[in-house]
Amino acid sequence: MPGHVGRSDSRLPELDSLRGIAALLVLLHHAVQIVPRIENPDIPGFNLLRYTLMHLTPLRVIEFGRPAVLFFFVLSGYVLTRALMIGGSPGLGAFAAQRTIRLGLPVFVSVLLSVALWALFADPNLPAEWRDRSLYTWLVPPDLEQVISNSLLLATNDTMRLNVVLWSLVHEWRLTVLLPLVLLLRGRALLLAAGVLALGWLGIMGGAGEDTAVLGHHLRGSLTATLYFAPGIGAGVALAVWLGRDMPVLNRDAWLAATVACIAFFGMASDIAIYAGSVLLIVLARQPGRFRAALRTGPALLAGRLSFSLYLVHVPVIVASLHLLHNHAPPLVIMIFGMAAALLTAAAFHPLVEEPARLLARWAERRLSRRRGWHQPTAERRPPMGRDWGPEGGMGGVPR
């Protein structure tokens, strides 16, 4: 590792692109769920080939979707902690308020969007075969209790039915709201990694299903699930604490080994393996060369900018498309229409909801940090008003 890269970078467009690609994969995964499974052709070995590709390679993200969300956890821990290491802490209260507004306001609007789409397009006589493919959304008419629990990220597996993807934000918010505390472990990345692994183990002991946990069926189950996902956020945090602003430049052998290991990890049905693969993917994306150059250009950058909005709106929009068109178009057409509608909705949601929430969150942090008399006198650190702490899964962009 003969050197470092990224020492002066505060904006990391390659990570924006990775985030955008992951968000598109989540969109594709959920869109595919509404299409009836196509019977495999009667070709010798085809079933084995399909199983191998969709269960034992990185393509499994299309079948299951979970690896992309776990990658968001790792990326979130990395970009948020790196920003704290560069700019210093604005104070626990200011940071917590900023994160809560940054996440909570778009979440609330996404829940209202789901209710509005239900009121406009829901078909109460949706056939059973379509209900089974409706992503667990609108199985019962929305009520005030559902709106409140979903908006405040207090829902469980059984009640998160207005926007099912919000399950990951429950854990994202809980695990990052007091993230400035990790600065106490600066230079002690191994101790930090051991601690978050222990938290994950406690989550399993408390009943969180290994490699299957989502939210749980009650508050206690939800809290143990949050402990279970601590190694996800923690992996990114530990990477940032270990490396700070720098990133080691890998020699050819190390780069090849990391690439093979990354592909192997993403092909495993193991959350811990996905966390390890995510760390390697972040390291590889920041290496000088063709991969980073490709990530710094092209449509993936736009997808990265819209990724949080796309994550929040795509399920209600896809399900609304299903309700609207199930009697008028084949499933494949509904899938394509739903994906296109989700992208267009995200493009509107970003300037109308996400950007105002970001500005309000930055204003709240600035006011609270001033009230506490926080300042950073060194030239290395920037004032709070220049930050943009990323929201769900690091989806809000690298702080700038």
How would you characterize the overall build of this protein?
- The chain has 400 residues and is mainly alpha-helical.
- It has one domain (16-35, 51-374).
- It contains 16 helices and two strands.
- It has a two-stranded antiparallel sheet with strand order 1-2.
- The protein is globular and about 60 Å long.
- Residues 375-400 have low confidence and may be disordered.
Key features?
mainly alpha, 16 helices, 2 strands, disordered C terminus
Query: Can you write the helix and strand succession as a string?
Result: EHHHHHHHHHHHEHHHHH
Low-confidence stretches: 375-400
Overall morphology: globular
* Strand coverage percent: under 5%
Instruction: Output the number of helix runs.
Output: 16
Averaged pLDDT = 89
End-to-end distance, in Å?
Answer: 27 Å
Query: What is the SS-derived class?
Result: mainly alpha
Query: Strand order, biggest sheet?
Result: 1-2
As a percent range, the share of helical residues equals: 55-70%
Estimated radius of gyration: 21 Å
Question: How many E strands?
Answer: 2
Number of domains: 1
Largest sheet: 2 strands, antiparallel
Write the layout of secondary structure elements.
Layout: E1 4-5, H1 13-33, H2 46-56, H3 60-64, H4 66-87, H5 92-121, H6 128-131, H7 144-151, H8 167-176, H9 189-205, H10 219-228, H11 230-243, E2 247-248, H12 252-266, H13 271-285, H14 290-295, H15 299-325, H16 331-371
Antiparallel strand pairs: 1-2
Helix pairs in contact: 1-4, 1-15, 1-16, 4-11, 4-13, 5-15, 5-16, 9-10, 9-11, 11-13, 12-13, 15-16
